[in-house]
Design goal:
The complex is a heterodimer of chains A (229) and B (203). Chain A is built from eight helices and no strands. Chain A has 229 residues and is mainly alpha-helical. Chain A folds into two domains: 45 residues, no CATH class; 131 residues, no CATH class. In chain A, helix 3 packs across helix 4 and helix 5 packs across helix 6. Chain A is rod-shaped and about 115 Å long. The two termini of chain A are 70 Å apart. Chain B is mainly α and 203 residues long. Chain B has two domains: 96 residues, Rna Polymerase Sigma Factor, Chain: A; 93 residues, Orthogonal Bundle (Arc Repressor Mutant, subunit A). Chain B contains nine helices and no strands. In chain B, helix 3 packs across helix 4. Classes of the chains: A mainly alpha (229), B mainly alpha (203). At the A-B interface, helix 1 and helix 4 of A face helix 2, helix 3, helix 5, helix 6 and helix 8 of B.
Chain lengths: 229, 203
């Protein structure tokens, strides 16, 4: 029996895929059950779907690379990710310390270059430090001997009871003191440069610590993190 | 709608016998296990890519991209049917290529009659019936290639690989109604194209 006012073919397609809105449509079901044309369409669409679902797999046209290069290999699940995450802050901290150390170490050198107007960085930084240290040693040894002037054995530069030369030793002491200051200050008369540093510069140690931290973290990571392949 | 994985065909790649163990090894970083999985499913992935893209070279590229993506993502694989998971990745990789291709429409459309790969022999239990099946598959492939790209994509994902409407909509970034309409129109167009080979359906 051929019934006019057929449903849209897309509705029949929806019915073929068992869509909810089509299967629950009573009017559609009623029409299809009595219409030869729509029943035929529905059957063909069903057969088409079944055949499409059976289409076979297809062999590739060329050999495919099944794996990425080793360099792209991801970390094994639970096997190295946490170790990497552990070492990342250590490496960063080491790098930060090293940078601070380099800046701290190089800073006085640049200052020295600027103030001496042509001296090399080593002379400005290292030379001055060495001179200051040497002067400090000399001064401290002199200071240790000074209390002896109150009594007891005569100190270096102090007039001894047996001495008949009343001027020679004080002069000697003055000349030594002056030479110490001169040595500490270099050739300049700049009073500031005679000031002795309270302690050694910490920057080389910071630099060393930073580099050591980085190298250590890299080494441990290389040992502990599993490698692909 | 049925899931693609539930509809197994004799001509589709079945799961590996010890698939769960191989997947676990691959997820743990075993490259050999991963290669074993990809080798096993490469025909399934390539078939999907080839049907979406209608070009052998692009299909191979898409499959390759899908393998690389799967390699990076296998650690996050959370069970389910592996074939479906891999096919979804392949469909996304293919659709990316398809989108780029549609933005540059200068390349000519391939001739649907040409470039179709040799489909595997479905089996030789009943040579006449299997020859008819092979003939049907060949005509279906040609008819699929004659569909507009949007209808072909929707029909291939839904009817050939059994993805549901929502999955297709998400993958193609289209509205649900649009996807349904593309599928139904594509299916009706296929029916027209297959009209002269109608007898093969009953063969």
């Amino acid at each position: 029996m051929l019934i006019p006012n057929h449903p849209d073919d897309e509705r029949l397609s929806a019915l073929a895929s068992l869509d909810d809105d089509a299967t629950t449509d009573a009017a559609l079901a009623s029409h299809v059950s009595t219409c030869v044309r729509c029943t035929e369409t529905l059957t063909e669409l069903g057969a088409l779907r079944a055949s499409l679902a059976e289409l076979p797999d297809v062999a590739p046209s060329r050999p495919l690379r099944l794996l990425p290069p080793v360099a792209d290999a991801p970390a094994a699940v639970g096997g190295g990710g946490w170790i990497r995450r552990l070492f990342a802050p250590a490496m960063t901290a080491g790098a930060a310390l090293a940078i601070v150390g380099v800046i701290g170490t190089a800073g006085p050198a640049f200052q020295g270059m600027a103030s001496s107007g042509g001296d090399s960085a080593l002379e400005a930084a290292g030379g001055e430090d060495a001179a200051s240290s040497f002067a400090q040693v000399l001064r401290s040894s002199a200071a240790e001997q000074e209390p002896a002037t109150d009594g007891g054995a005569p100190a270096y530069g102090e007039e001894s009871p047996e001495s008949t030369d009343g001027q020679s030793r004080p002069l000697a002491r003055e000349s030594v003191g002056a030479s110490i200051d001169q040595f500490a200050a270099g050739d300049d008369d700049d009073g500031e440069r005679t000031a002795l540093p309270a302690e050694r510069s910490p920057w080389p140690m910071v630099l060393f610590t930073g580099v050591a931290l980085m190298v250590g973290a890299a080494l441990l990571r290389w040992i502990l993190v599993p490698r692909a392949g | 709608m049925t899931d693609a994985s539930e509809r197994t065909s004799a001509t589709r790649t079945p799961p590996l016998p010890d698939e769960a163990a191989v997947i676990a090894r691959a997820a743990g970083g075993d490259r050999t296990a991963f290669a074993q999985l990809m080798e096993h499913y490469q025909s399934a992935c390539y078939g999907l890519a080839w049907r979406l893209l209608s070009d052998a070279d692009q299909a191979a590229d898409a499959t390759q991209d899908a393998f690389m993506h799967a390699y990076r993502a296998i650690g996050s694989y959370r069970g389910g049917i592996f074939r479906s998971w891999l096919l979804r990745i392949t469909a996304n990789a293919s659709y990316d290529i398809l989108r780029r291709q549609q933005r540059r429409p200068s390349s000519p459309l391939p001739d649907p009659e040409e470039g179709a790969p040799e489909l595997p022999d479905p089996g030789a239990v009943n040579p006449v019936a299997e020859a008819t099946k092979s003939e049907l598959y060949r005509h279906l492939e040609v008819a699929l290639r004659r569909l507009p790209a949007d209808q072909r994509t929707a029909v291939v994902l839904c009817d050939v690989y059994g993805m549901d409407y929502n999955e297709v909509a998400a993958m193609t970034q289209s509205a649900l109604g649009t996807v349904k309409s593309r599928i139904h129109r594509g299916r009706l167009r296929l029916r027209e194209l297959m009209a002269e080979h109608r007898e093969l359906f009953t063969g």
